[in-house]
């Protein structure tokens, strides 16, 4: 199921999935993949400058990840354009949650703002059986 958030005309959609072939539950290693689509619904060109993730595992342990761009890029999006990428999150527990923000720059106005990344769950399918 996709989670969606919109901030100042920047729509962020996330779909997450468990990657069983790269996980080892016996060793407490769970890998999750997530696909993110960022669409510019505004009338101004925007650029993604930085990311800030808050990752919480099933034991409540929180890790923050900050850095420039995503997957080595700082995409520029004209009005109506979309950028999609996939990344991964390893956890030591079969469940977790991710949320965060992208620092975006409105290239027409020259002002930055925080675009919300919707909160989404990371769940190994047998975790609740």
Protein architecture, described:
By secondary structure, the protein is mainly β. It has a single domain, classed as Sandwich (Immunoglobulin-like), CATH 2.60.40. The chain has strands at about 5, 10-20, 30-40, 45-55, 60-70, 75, 80-90, 95-105, 110-125. The strands form 2 sheets. Strands 4, 5, 6, 8 and 9 form a 5-stranded antiparallel sheet that branches. Strands 1-2-3-7 form a 4-stranded antiparallel sheet, with no helix packed on it. The model has no long low-confidence stretch (mean pLDDT about 95).
List keywords for this structure.
129 residues, mainly beta, Immunoglobulin-like, 5-stranded antiparallel sheet, 4-stranded antiparallel sheet
What's the CATH class label?
Answer: Mainly Beta
Which overall shape is indicated by the principal axes computed on the Cα atoms? elongated
N-to-C series of helices and strands:
EEEEEEEEE
Structural class comes to mainly beta
Rg for CA atoms:
16 Å
How many helices? The count is 0
Total domain count: 1
- The share of residues in extended strands comes to over 45%
Main beta sheet:
5 strands, antiparallel
Give the secondary structure arrangement, pairings included.
Blueprint: E1 3-7, E2 10-18, E3 30-40, E4 46-57, E5 62-68, E6 76-77, E7 82-91, E8 95-106, E9 111-123
Antiparallel strand pairs: 1-2, 2-3, 3-7, 4-5, 4-6, 4-8, 8-9
Summarize the structure.
Helix content is about 0%, strand content about 65%. The chain has about 130 residues and is mainly beta. The protein starts with a strand and ends in a 6-residue tail after the last strand.
């Amino acid at each position: 199921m996709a989670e969606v958030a919109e901030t100042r005309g920047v729509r962020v959609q996330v779909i997450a999935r468990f990657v069983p072939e790269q996980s080892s539950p016996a060793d407490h290693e769970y890998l999750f993949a997530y696909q993110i689509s960022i669409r510019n619904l505004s009338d101004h060109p925007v650029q993604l400058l930085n990311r800030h993730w808050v990752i919480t595992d099933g034991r409540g342990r929180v890790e923050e990840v900050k850095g420039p761009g995503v997957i080595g890029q700082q995409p520029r999006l004209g009005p109506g354009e979309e950028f999609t990428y996939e990344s991964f999150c390893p956890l030591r527990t079969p469940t977790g949650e991710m949320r965060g923000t992208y620092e975006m720059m409105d290239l027409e106005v020259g002002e930055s703002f925080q675009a919300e990344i919707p909160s989404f769950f990371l769940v190994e399918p047998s975790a609740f059986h």
